Amino acid sequence: MSTNEAELATPEPRAGTRTMRFGEGRISGYLSALFGVSSLLGMLCFIFPEWLTTPDLRESLYTFEFARNLLWFGIVFAFTMGIVSFILSPQKKLSATGIGSAFIAVLLGAFNVQERVVADSPVSFGLDWFVISLVFSMAIFIPLEKAFARHPLAVMRPGWRTDLTYFFVSHLLIQFFLLFTNIVQTDWLAWAHSASVTLFAQSLPIWMQFLACVFIADLFQSVTHRWYHSNPWFWKFHSIHHSSKNMDWLAGSRTHFFEALATRTAVIVPLYIINFSEPALNAYVVLVGVQAVFVHANVRWDFGFLKYIIVTPQYHHWHHSDDPEYANTNYAVHLPLIDMLMGTFKLPDKMWPDSYGVFGHQPPKGFLSQLTYPFLPKPDTTK
Question: What residues have CB less than 8 Å from 126, skipping those under 6 apart?
Answer without folding.
Answer: 53, 54, 57, 171, 172, 173, 174, 175
